[in-house]
What we know:
Oligomer: homodimer
Largest sheet of chain A: 6 strands, mixed, barrel
Helix content of chain A: 40-55%
Structural class of chain A: alpha/beta
CATH topology of the largest domain in chain A: Pyrimidine Nucleoside Phosphorylase, Chain A, domain 2
Number of domains of chain A: 4
Radius of gyration of chain A: 25 Å
Amino acid sequence: MSTARQDQLRARRMGIDTYHEPVAFMRENCAVCRAEGFKAMARVRIAHDERSIIATLNVVRGQSLAPSEIGLSEAAWHALGSHSGDLVSVSHPEPVESFSSVRSKIYGKPFDAAALHDVVRDITAGRYSSIEIAAFVTACAGNHMTLEETVALTRAMVDSGTRLAWQQNPVMDKHCVGGLPGNRTTPILVAIAAACGLTIPKTSSRAITSPAGTADTMAVLAPVELTLQHIRRVVDSEGGCVVWGGSIALSPADDRLIQVERPLEIDSSGQLTASVLSKKLAAGSTHLLIDMPVGATAKVRSAAAADVLQHSLEAAGAALGLQTRVVRTDGTQPVGRGIGPVLEAIDVLAVLRNGAGAPPDLRQRALLLAGHLLELGGKAAAGDGIALARKTLDSGAAWKKFEAICIAQGGLRKPRRAPHRRPVVAPCAGIVGSIDNRRLARTAKLAGAPLSPAAGVELCVRLGQRVEADAPVYLIHAEAPGELDYAAAYAAAHPEIVSVKEPS
Amino acid sequence: MSTARQDQLRARRMGIDTYHEPVAFMRENCAVCRAEGFKAMARVRIAHDERSIIATLNVVRGQSLAPSEIGLSEAAWHALGSHSGDLVSVSHPEPVESFSSVRSKIYGKPFDAAALHDVVRDITAGRYSSIEIAAFVTACAGNHMTLEETVALTRAMVDSGTRLAWQQNPVMDKHCVGGLPGNRTTPILVAIAAACGLTIPKTSSRAITSPAGTADTMAVLAPVELTLQHIRRVVDSEGGCVVWGGSIALSPADDRLIQVERPLEIDSSGQLTASVLSKKLAAGSTHLLIDMPVGATAKVRSAAAADVLQHSLEAAGAALGLQTRVVRTDGTQPVGRGIGPVLEAIDVLAVLRNGAGAPPDLRQRALLLAGHLLELGGKAAAGDGIALARKTLDSGAAWKKFEAICIAQGGLRKPRRAPHRRPVVAPCAGIVGSIDNRRLARTAKLAGAPLSPAAGVELCVRLGQRVEADAPVYLIHAEAPGELDYAAAYAAAHPEIVSVKEPS
């Protein structure tokens, strides 16, 4: 081993996951800590060969680390690319230049495009700490972003990662603003659109805080972790796909921003617009349909909030050359019966196969959105889209296309139901008055979704429906008895998840 | 040992210092992580007996923790008060209610007093994550705080901790806005004021990012970590003291806010005002003199910034019943010769003893500020304060008082100089054109200050002074040869720290 200089320490992988935030661990009595005057939570620059990262310092008091060592969290370890025992040098980082424009923004000075480019580049490179990102997010929130700023932020985010290009044109895409459990229309839309001759290379995400993302549900039915080459083959032969987008770095700055925005729950139409549009532009899309559920426990909670967001999405989309259409939908209750990967996949299959048990609301919503998609892509005249969508679904053409896509992605799979179920029952006879989307999603997660794909919630009632006392309002599904108990305890503590009003 | 419920884990102290942010470490395959769907960086509630804390989750992959264990950082360990192996229960925290008023503020709605009270209470209780505090700080920055908000924030911060009460009246206090190395007037001011019959129970801080705080410098001369009872005895007998305030929880929310504000370097006159005034009000002061150095590399960089801050401090002080006087001073170069605890203590002693080598600038500044303090406390008419201060210093009365205070605090000590010194020399003959306060402070810290009290920098020149080529412009002092080399290398890399211009 080479000899350490005074600013050098030996790298050690700590096996500690701090998500996107690189963390370094150093002994308080180590020479570098003493000489540089580093204290806990200081930002430190760590360099090895040609690479350098900035990490947040945690100071270790115990014997778990030697004074000559520096421990690295998973994010820091991967970003630095060093090996165990490598000598790395540690120093004070230069201040992040681009943060001065964030400070100016706080004082009311708008960002220009170059400033946003530099901010996003530095965020992507891991130069911003979480509190610096929080300051950026806060400065942009409260509708403090102009359209010009939103457009420039979107462009900067597209530039921060991979950008796909397609031979085909138009390239259709779809997004749901979210917050509605079970609203799994994407696989149905892709099948209908592709069956009608549109190109729709759909990249989807896995769940972050919800019981299932589209990629989680689709993974029940077919492989979704495809190489870019494989994705291109599927799209060239079938016109569409439903794959996980995480293996392609589309708008990577977005992931880091979301990590900070989500816990703050700061609604920022500018940043939400940039987040959505940057992913779609990076995916090479030309036309975008946005499903925007509006409801008290959905992500968009009021018509006024919907107005602001819709205008931001459409105006920025137009400025960026992405034809964007927003469709507002009912966000007062879940869509379909299942919440959780397998249960949602079963609903999707039932609609595609025109099964007797297909949830009518999921079918209706999928047809409505598919109709808009067909019109947006030029396959139907205005007002005629929904009829073409219905024909494509009812004829079996959509199902045939879906089967072909699944096979092209690696094979159609059969969903396997969970072994453990327990009903939650109505406390009295009456009418279903409200459904809490957020707490119902929580129940599904406590039951194990999405890590246990068959876990989740199966809803037995709809708003306004009459129920008898002790009739099940929903079933909890779990893969393990412990998880079933856990979710059931939460459900019992929250009888308002599905509220039943006695008729007056 | 008792049996663990499904939501319980055994507490383990990790010996990891994450400063004020409580962090919990859990294995990714532990039952609670799985059941609750916790991911890295999630906020988790940890309860034991009657106490509960909220911590940020780091997920551990290795074998350093068992799946049945939860590791706690130092801040989490102390806040929870559990013992090794205790069963603690882990759950999702309820959303922090008071953060909704921060969200409203981001949208432009001013805080009311009750909202700020709740925000500060929750910050003090550790319920806010660092990114939530960053959002609060950002929402308040950019001069977005009204005077009413600033006053309410100050009151809330006072209420968050201990509040001292004194029999004496008036109770004088002094604060320096900071950023000027060596500006160690406080011990001199306290001695002069107390010698003239004023009550001045001065609580000071240790250095956080500077090479020395007043408490670090005073600790060279006398014990500063006193109990409250001991402080009262000193003040009753001598009229003044200079002690470390850290053992009394004065405005504890302030420490948490500063931890986030400092790295962001967001200038917020409202929060700076609340920070300064809350500490003084909590200390029981009735009259406050503020030294505000203005200069390009000081904390307040321009006359315009000084105007805003001065107005905020004086108006809020008036509203809170704290008589506040701001004195603007030269912030273009350090004060005195020494930077670092021992070197500053030597300067302070020289001024108090009227020694031949006393730095004239430190003496002048101390007299100016002491004069204002005597006028503010009613011991001298307007304009007569400086003459009384000079008389008190020149007569030896101030030195006698200082000796008595040191003895009452536990004994006067003799500073011990560092064994290793190295000069930094002028590259050419010429005039000293500028001095970089920040980088000079950095050099002193790299030499080991304040942990090594004798380490630091001894300045040999003043702005505008003529120097010969190779004449020393400053000396680096260190307690160890390695630290001397380290600081010298930094000094060599930054010849602009003291710039010498050849005469034209």
